[in-house]
Amino acid sequence: MKILVVDDAPEIVDSVRLGFAVQWREVDLLAAGTGQQALELVERESPDLVLLDVGLPDIDGFKVLQEIRFFSDVPVVMLTARDDTIDKVKGLELGADDYVTKPFNHLELLARVKAVLRRLDMPAPKSRAPSFKSGEMEMDFNAQELRVKGDTVPLTPTEYKLLYHLVRNAGNTLTHGTLLAKVWGREYRDEVDYLRVYVRRLRDKLADDPEKPRYIRTERGLGYRFMRPS
Question: Distance between CA 157 and CA 177 in Å, rounded?
């Protein structure tokens, strides 16, 4: 297991290194102090996961994340001293897999890292039904594909799992906590911002207007409901 930590504070890097050395000895920890170094290491070393600080001396961490996503789908956990919902949502929208606020507990960091790796490694849920059709969209469970107007629409593993659970419960409201537990894990039951970001992504890919939804309806204060096909 190879993990890259990107932070310009040597004490943070040393602390993370010590935490992994004590709790997860199989991890080979790489370090970068700048965004440019991080990009070079991601391309050259192909780490299994990146811990990426937002406040870097040369390139903003969000920009580094954008650059990484141009050529790699490596899991990225953002590290930041700012406990700001706007920053969290921005990171998730740019493709971050999780977010940890400094100062963090090493056991919490380790749990978050393992949760991300476990979630991405889990096989997609399966269904006995071969497909689901509603309007211009079709979800092929056997091929694990979404098609809109006959064209395949690429989904990330997390997007597919979220859409799967919504579709398989079409007509029923799934609460925020239920969706978060099913897709992200029980430790994420309160992370409603994660859910909002991914529902927005799905709506974009389905060309679904949240004001007049054909597919995903928001049940305010409760959760989301996939519309049952007429």
Answer: 19
